[in-house]
Design goal:
This protein is mostly beta strands. The chain has one domain (3-55): 2-Layer Sandwich (Alpha-Beta Plaits), CATH 3.30.70. Helix content is 9%, strand content 21%. It has one helix and four strands; from the N terminus they run βββαβ. The chain has one helix at residues 43-47, and strands at 3-5, 24-26, 31-33, 53-55. The protein has a two-stranded antiparallel ribbon with strand order 1-4. Strands 2-3 form a two-stranded antiparallel ribbon. The longest helix is centred in the C-terminal third of the chain and has 5 residues, at 43-47. It is globular. The N and C termini lie close together (6 Å). The protein binds iron/sulfur cluster (2 copies).
Length: 56
């Protein structure tokens, strides 16, 4: 399991510093999660203003 950032992402960057394992980085058109590093903590989903990160 890992969180995935959906297309709703507006690239605000708020989630990146919240991730305890630095799994989030800026992608071409949205932020992206390194599925291999994500520990499913949910911090990104909690801070995101548009609910873009979802658990998959
Ligand atoms: Fe990082 Fe937690 Fe979001 Fe996974 S769920 S990307 S570990 S903040
Ligand atoms: Fe995208 Fe939400 Fe992260 Fe902002 S907090 S960069 S909108 S996923």
């Amino acid at each position: 399991m890992a969180y995935v950032i959906k297309d709703a992402c507006i690239s605000c960057g708020a989630c990146e510093p919240e991730c305890p394992v630095s799994a989030i980085s800026a992608g071409d058109d949205k932020y992206v999660v390194d599925a291999g590093a994500c520990i499913d903590c949910g911090a990104c989903a909690n801070i995101c203003p548009v609910d873009a990160p979802v658990a998959e």
